[in-house]
Amino acid sequence: MAMTEQLEERLGQLLRTRGLTLAVAESCSGGLICHRITNVPGASDYFLGGVVTYSNQAKAELLRVPEATLATHGAVSAETATAMATGVRERFHAQVSVAVTGIAGPTGGTPQKPVGTVFIAVAGPKRVEARRFAFQGGREQIKAQTAEAALTWLVEELAP
Asked: For the segment 43-62, what is each residue's pLDDT rounded down to a tens digit?
């Protein structure tokens, strides 16, 4: 079994053991997190669903990210990731959610937010937290690192 498969299985075990449900909102990872979660047989026990919101309009309409947040902080920001995590958790009535937004490249980077800048947010019943990551490599590598970091954070968050 590959290392990445073990991570998804561990996440599933933690969610199942604790009786929690999960929803996912993705942007720069393009559905890779949901793909990995659903690679585990029986994921329907805890995984309610996910959305890929690539455009600002989709973030606003589907996840209720305030347009003021997008205008003020940008789509790639801790504030937007936090709003995405909160929005998807509410939309799916899940106890836990994760959201990612970033710049996978090769274009789109700026000096303040270079290619590889990714914000990940995890929302639970009691709190929402966002973190900034700086990944390296090409587009597919950045997407893979984003999914790995999001799943790792969820496992760390849920582990006893």
From this structure: 999 999 999 999 999 999 99
Query: What is the rounded average pLDDT of the residues 122-129?
Result: 93
The dihedral built from the CA positions of residue 81, 42, 12 and 10, taken in this order, carries a sign that is: negative
pLDDT per residue as tens digits for the range 12-27: 999 999 999 999 999 9
Closest alpha carbon to 38 in 28, 48, 30 = 48
Rounded Cα distance between 63 and 144, Å, is: 23
Calculate the alpha carbon distances from 54 to 47, 111, 112 in Å: 21, 22, 20
Distance from C-alpha of 90 to C-alpha of 127, rounded to nearest angstrom: 13
The tokens for 115 are 């290619």
